[in-house]
Amino acid sequence: MIIINLIDANDFVQRVTLDGTIYNLHMSWSGDDWTLDIRNADNVDIIRGIAVRANFPLLAPYGRHLPTLRGQLLAVVNDGNDELCRDCFVNGRAKLVYVPASEVREILNNG
User: Fold this and answer.
1) Is 103's pLDDT higher than 90?
2) In 3D, which of 77, 94, 66 has the Cα closest to residue 5?
3) Where are the extended beta strands (E) located within the chain?
4) Among 43, 50, 77, 93, fewest CB within 10 Å belongs to which?
C-alpha cells in the first residue's frame, strides 16, 4: 500500500509513481466535494472528474482507460463517518492510498 500525501490547498496537482508509471493527480475541492483527475506524466488528461468518495474503489469503473494501473485508489476513512471534508486529507482523518494489483490479489486469495 502506498499512502499519497496531499497538500493543504483547494486545487493542486500531486505527482506520483504508481506501478512504475508517473501520474499527475489533480485534486479539486468544489466547496462540497473532492474530485480527482488522472493525467499522464506530460499532464495530458486520462480520466477527469472522478468523484472522491470515502472507502470506495475510485478506479473500479475506469480499468480500460488505465492499462498500466491495475491496483486500486481509495480515500480511506475509518472513523465511521464517510463524509470527506476539505481538510480531511491534511488533518489525518482520511488518507489517499493506492493498493498495487499484487496486494489486491493477495487480499483476495487470502480472504
Assistant:
1) no
2) 94
3) 2-4, 11-18, 21-29, 34-39, 45-51, 72-76, 95-99
4) 43
Instruction: For residue range 17-26, list pLDDT tens digits in order.
Output: 998 899 999 9
Helix-strand-coil split of the chain, %, nearest 5: 15, 40, 45
Residue type, 76: V
How far apart are the C-alpha atoms of 43 and 13, rounded to whole Å? Answer: 9
pLDDT at residue number 108: 66
Give 94's pLDDT tier (boundaries 50, 70, 90): very high
CA distances from 51 to 92, 97, 101 (A): 20, 15, 21
pTM to 2 decimal places:
0.88
Nearest 5 degrees, angle CA 46-CA 76-CA 99? 55
